[in-house]
Structure formats: structure tokens, C-alpha cells
Amino acid sequence: MPIENLGIVSAISKLIMLLFKPFLAIIGALLGLVFSGDIDKEGKLKINKFVLIKATASIAISLTGTPFLLQYYQLSHINNASQGFIYLMLGVFGLLVVGIAYRAIELLKGKSIGEIITEIKQALFAIQNADKQIDYSNPKYDRRNKEQNNDK
Prior knowledge:
Elements: H1 6-36, H2 49-72, H3 80-108, H4 113-128, H5 146-151
Helix pairs in contact: 1-2, 1-3, 2-3
């Protein structure tokens, strides 16, 4: 290969790496849409405002969050494939976070602050006392006597 062509090869390889990471962010957003059920098993996607917001937010989280994570944890030395995998995972899980936040906001619409606080208290109380609510010493919960418990 002649020496004068090495600059072109270097530029093309940098261009490929520049396009590789956003491509993986988009693939991560599409995987997140599949996992969230917005893309069904037949591959059909119903495009609406919510789906577009989720996909755009997921791609934005992936494209901005991955460089932040790589700098914060000092992982800029890892190879491009590993960095691409981080872009992909942040795209998938970014969509999950956006979906959870959107659903939480939708569930809270039309409720007062007092009702929201009461619901949160009840949920935390139920989580804290989940093991205390069931008396496992009761023969009713003994799986060995399942047939006997059904006869009573």
C-alpha cells in the first residue's frame, strides 16, 4: 500500500468508529422497545408520541451517558467494541428508566399530594412488613400437607 493512501485509511477507520457508537445506541433503543412490548413478536411498531419520546430519550441517554460513565470510571482505555456494548446497554436500560418514569407520572395524574404520600407510605409499609404478614408456622402454608389443607 502506498504511503500517501494511509491518511485515507485512517480517516475511514475513524469515520467507522464515529458511526459505530450511535448505531449501537439506536439498536439499544430498538431492543428496549422490543422488551417494553412496543414492538410485538411480529415486528410491528405502533408509532405514537409516547414511543417516539421513549426512543429519543433512550438514544439521548445512551449518547450522553456513556461518555460520562467512561470518563467517571476511567474506562476510556477499553477497546471500541466494549465501549459500544456500554452504548447498547445504556440504550436498553435508558429506555427502561424512561418507561418507568412515564408510567409513574401517568399513574399520579389527578391525585393530590396527600394521596400520593399515602400511597408511598402504604407501599413502603407493605414491603417492610411483607415477611411478618404471613405466618409460615400455620399448617395452612405447609406444602407437605397440601392435600390435607385442600380437604378442610
